[in-house]
Structure formats: C-alpha cells, structure tokens
Amino acid sequence: MSVERILWEQDATGLAEMVHKGEISPAELIEAAITRAEATRPEINAIAEPLYDAARSRAKTVDRELPLAGIPFAIKDLGIVMKGVPVHGGSRIPAFTGDFNSVMTERHLAAGLIPIATSTSPEHGLRLMTESAAFGITRNPWNTAHTSGGSSGGAAALVAAGVVPVAHASDGGGSIRVPSACTGLVGLKTSRGRVPLTPLVTESWYGMVVDHAVTRSVRDCALLLDLTHGPDPLSPYAAVPPRGTFAAAAARDPGKLKLAVYRKSPLGLPISNDTMTALDTAMALAREGRHNVEEIDLPYIDRDFIADFARTVASAVAGSLRGEAERVGRSISGDIERATRVLGRLGEMLSAGEVYAGLQRLHATSRRLISETAQYDAVLMPIIAHPPLACGAMDPKGADEFIENVLDKLHLTPLLKIKPLFGQLMDKSLWFTPWPSIQNVSGQPSIALPVHVTDAGLPLGIQAAGRPGDEETLLSLAAQMEKISGWLDRRAPLMVPG
Predict the structure, then answer these.
(1) Does 442 participate in catalysis according to the annotation?
(2) φ and ψ of 231, to 5 deg
(3) Is 88:130 a contact under the CB 8 Å cutoff?
(4) Residue 323, number of CB atoms within 10 A of its CB
(5) Is 151 considered catalytic here?
C-alpha cells in the first residue's frame, strides 16, 4: 500500500503509532502529504502558503518518540503565527510576518506535528464560506461545486481531501464547526480560555474567538487538545482544568447522559429538511447510546441576541481595520473587500456605549443560558440551516452594495436610522448558520459531529454544546456517537487516491 493511501486511510493517532513502531518514517509521511497537496490543490484551492522545504527539513530531525511525531499538519492563515511565515488573513493587505512563534505553534511543534502549509481563510475570517479576492474559492472535497464552509474552510478541505489528518482552526462565530459540518469532520470549539492566543493577542472579539482544530476522528481531537491546552503567563483567563486527560475521556463510555435538543432558528428563518434529518439522526444515535433526550426551547436566543453579537463583531472589525492601517502605515480601503469594508463602517458608526450595552446584554443572556441548561450534559442543535452551499452562493454583492451606498449618505446619522439595513445584512450573512455564535458568546464548548449525508452526497453535521469547561463529556459522547454511526470509515468520494 502506498504511503499516500495510508495517509488517506489513517487518522493522526494511527499514523503516529506507525511512526513509533518504525513502520513508516516522518519523511515518508511528509513527502506523501506534499504529493497529495499538489495533486488536490487545483481542485480544492486550500493552501495559502506552501511550507514544503521547511517541512522536509523538520521531518529529518523530528524526535520520533513525540506523541504526534512526523504527522503532516496545516496552520490556518489567521490568528496564530509561525516564525518567518507570512500571515495574510485571507486579505490583500500586506501580510504580517512574525519573528516569533505563537504559544499554540510552539505546542504544535513540541507535539511533533510538521506544518506543510498554511490553509486558506476568507478575509479576516468574516465569512462562513472560504472565498476571498486574495486567494479565490476554496472548494469542498465531497463536491467541488460546493463550499467547504468558513472561516477554517481551507483547513477542513485539506483534512477532508486526505492531505493532512488534522489541521489548526479557529472559531469566532462557528468557524471550526461550520467547515466541519460541511466536510464530514470533527470540530471542537473549546471553552473560553482553554487554549491561549498569545503572544499575538490576549483575546480576540472580546473573548469570543477560540483556537483548536478540525480532525478526522474524535480521538485525534482529544489528543491534540491534551497537547495544546492550558494557559501561559500572558493568558488573561483560563478554563476550568480537566479532571483527567481528554484522550481518556474520548476512550471511555459516557454512561447514561441527559441530553436536550434545540431545533429552532434564532433568526426565525427557514431551516432545510436535510438539517432536520441530520438533527433527528443525531437524536437517534444518542438514544441508541442509551441517553435520555428531550426537546427544549430557548426563547431568549432570538434576533436581538444575534443582532447584539453581529454589532459586537462589527465593532471588533472596525478596531482591527484601524490596527491594520496603522501597521502598514497607509489607508487600506482599497485592499479590503466590500463585505469587510461595510462591516467595518457599521462598526465605526456604533458608539462605545452601545457596544458596551450590547456586551452586557449578551453576558446576561449567557448567564441565563448556562444556568437553565446546566441540568443537561449536552444540548444538541444544528450548525448549518442548509446543506453546504454552492460556491459563490453568498457573493457579498447585493445587500452589502445597497447598504454601503446608503451609508455614504448616512455616515453621520444615528445607528437607529439604519437598523432595517443592518437587519438585512445580518440575515444575509447569518441565514446559513445562525446557531454557532451562541457558544462563542457564552464561552461554552461545542463539538461538531458528522452524522448525515444528503441525497446529493454532501455531509451535514450537527453540534453538541456542553457546560463551560466540560469538553470531557462532549468528547466521550462524540466518540460513542462516532462509533455507533460508523462515520470514521467514510471519506470524500471525489478524493480517493489511486
């Protein structure tokens, strides 16, 4: 069997076991990953910066006793830094090249992972489809006419295509879970404070952004979290420490759990039959695992909640764009995409008082959500309201262009007068996926699970959200559902190597 085929069939844990036994070498794995990357690159377009020469060099010297020795890996082109590697953030703004490694990067390297590339992202991670003026369209390995999701769509495409078994990802409003749902992968949005973002930033989007990974298996997700979690001296806060290891949690039976199911759209917008089928499939898997499952309503997770989230993000984007302009020493309005510019301008129109008041409302709702769902071990809910969209289906023209033209006339007008326009933009941006931002606001962990394939042959995953700091229960439940479903043996049919 070729090494490329082994790379396709095995998860990271299985490949590491082969390295430890001397059955395969890191150099062989890296060469196979590079070959696979180049073979699939024209079809999926998921690489921002190839790191092939550095990967080959690292493979020659990596300690083969490390937990993930020699495992090919990708780092998202957004959020964390690898020394000497340009970070574009999916943008035409001149790249930032750091002279340091992020704490996460140091932990990845210390685990034995070998980055072969940085993965594509939409500009500043602001869209839930990975399409940018800087890098073009990243496509779904299951069907290249469709999106791999966003903003960690490049990471998901590389894993689903069998280029790497695990890839770094980040999540500020679903950016780990949406690509996982679109490509049939496992994606854990960790608890706030579980993994540090330092030293590049102490927090991002008021603490809503977290980093972890998209993976082929639950056990890979758990092992990688064991190797990367925990605060460093610059961390502003830390999640509750786990009781044991995450890998041990994923390996044990979860026992009989009390689960809830939430199936409404916070925006009150239509939900596809495929999404409801995926959620029903997840419920059936949970019941097969002997868990109690009951339906609940969360009436306070509504349009006002999502609007406060969107305004908060807009303010963060406005601040980030100011920082980028200061970094490059000039105006960047000609470098950024229309959708980014519109969101930033909306953020500039918000007063500091409105942003603070919105954050306080979000925190209050989060406290209520956490308190009222504490009786459940996890809450199952959708991730995407529709199957993976066709590429280009959320082109930022139309509503964005109309709103931008109106903003030219209203730039000194109170926000109240453009609220109807803001609602249009919010609905256009979030109708595909209104649920994931809930956990970014509350800080709870939530894991994306592959459970369903549509009649058109596209994956459609759901999520299980847990109590703050309790990734262990989620990983135990997810591993059980993975085993019952038999999903681990499924692969993107278009990408099977010869």
Answers:
(1) no
(2) -75, 165
(3) no
(4) 9
(5) yes
Q: Annotated catalytic residue: which of 175, 320, 442, 476?
A: 175
| Largest Cα span, the chain | 68
Residue type, 312: T
Selection from 178, 177, 175, 212 nearest residue 192 by Cα = 212
pTM: 0.96
SS3 for 429?
helix
Is the dihedral angle over the CA atoms 127, 129, 130, 134 positive or is it negative?
Answer: negative
Angstrom distance (rounded) from CA 157 to CA 144: 10
Of 25, 119, 121, 151, which one is the catalytic site residue?
Answer: 151
Exposure of 188 in the CB half-sphere (CA atoms within 13 A): 36
In three-state secondary structure terms, 360 is helix
Answer yes or no: 175 catalytic: yes
**Could you read off the pLDDT of 203-216 as tens digits, one per residue?**
999 999 999 999 99
| Number of other residues whose CB lies within 10 A of the CB of residue 92 | 17
Q: Which of 274, 263, 203, 212 is nearest to 434 (CA)?
A: 263
Average pLDDT of the chain to the nearest whole number: 94
* Mean pLDDT of all residues in 249-267: 98
